[in-house]
Design brief:
With about 110 residues, this protein is α+β, with helices and mostly antiparallel strands. It has one domain. α1 packs across α3. The longest helix has 23 residues.
Length: about 110
């Protein structure tokens, strides 16, 4: 799979997670939300639980994604934060460009 295709797959999962988080946010910012791992593995169905505030922190940067520990492709992403149950990764190269272009929160 190309970097562009990997980025598009991850962006699709991010869109699903955005809908889930919107519903959870209605209950309050400290509520927990369970989202899907946003890794490049199209068969990954693992989930991540974090608060709405934590989720919003990740979504504040277009090329940041939530993944389970170890679900990283070093050629196209790097870990920027490690938590016990999830890591925050930054997309690089073409995958990063796709992430920014497809960000549903981008004004653009």
């Amino acid at each position: 799979m190309s970097e562009e295709e990997l980025g598009a797959n991850e962006a699709l999962v991010r869109d699903v997670n955005e809908t889930v988080a919107e519903v959870a946010e209605m209950r309050g910012p400290e509520e927990s939300v369970e989202v899907l791992c946003e890794c490049a593995d199209t068969f990954c169905a693992e989930s991540i639980t974090l608060t709405c505030v934590e989720y919003e922190g990740v979504r504040a940067v277009s090329d940041h994604f939530l993944v389970k520990p170890g679900h990283v492709l070093p050629d196209i992403e790097r870990v920027v934060e490690r938590h016990a149950d999830y890591w925050i990764i930054e997309k690089l190269g073409e995958a990063g460009e796709v992430a920014e272009e497809t960000d549903p929160r981008s004004p653009g």
